[in-house]
Design brief:
The chain has 184 residues and is mainly beta. The protein is built from 1 helix and 8 strands. Strands 3-4-5-6-7-8 form a 6-stranded parallel beta sheet, with helices on one face. Strands 1-2 form a two-stranded antiparallel ribbon. This is Leucine-rich repeat domain-containing protein.
Length: 184
């Protein structure tokens, strides 16, 4: 079965304030096509709903069953926003920590337990989102994230001990937490 991949490449022109969107389609084999890594001006990359069920032409990658990222993603030096929504990533891809301009990471609604053991490697990231993901604990060295300004953990299984650890070790970070099933 051939799957189609839709990718939005977002970059800002240096001679104006306009943002350009370029849509490229590829045949997908559960990974980003190598040709994506030859486009260094990409600023945003979103991998969304890769469960092989539906294709939406809204500028987001669909239907590819991603579980890992190629180390070649570090070639995208201008990438500042990476999002994985409703996928099968089970850990933060360490290769993303090599991208110096990356300041926002989102792993919302991923289906497997997310291992955050390498989270402290993302020292340059300012915002992280793990909403509605299978997340149960935070690493002991979370205090290494001195640049982190915002951490969203809505509807995760973080317990009160780890939540308190976050508040203690990240005093300058706004933490957005809501227990699963709560309405507030």
């Amino acid at each position: 079965m051939v799957k189609i991949l839709f990718l939005v490449l977002v970059y800002t022109q240096t001679f104006s304030q306009e943002t350009n969107y370029t849509f490229t389609n590829y045949y997908c084999e559960n990974k980003l096509p190598d040709s994506v890594f030859s486009l260094p001006e990409i600023k945003e990359l979103r991998i969304i709903n890769n469960n092989g069920r539906d294709i939406l032409l809204d500028g987001e990658i669909r239907n590819c069953g991603f579980k890992t990222l190629s180390t070649k993603i570090s070639l995208l030096k201008n990438l500042n926003f990476f999002a994985s929504f409703n996928n099968d990533f089970c850990e933060l891809p360490l290769v993303l920590s090599k991208i110096q301009n990356l300041n926002l990471i989102s792993f919302d609604n991923n289906s497997c337990d997310i291992n955050l053991s390498n989270m402290s490697s993302f020292i340059q990231v300012k915002k992280m989102y793990f909403d509605e993901s299978s997340l149960y604990n935070v690493p002991d060295d979370i205090n290494n994230l001195t640049e982190l300004e915002y951490l969203s953990l809505r509807n995760t299984e973080i317990d009160s001990v780890d939540l308190q650890k976050l508040y203690d070790q990240l005093p300058n970070c706004e933490i957005n937490y809501r227990k699963p099933g709560s309405l507030d």
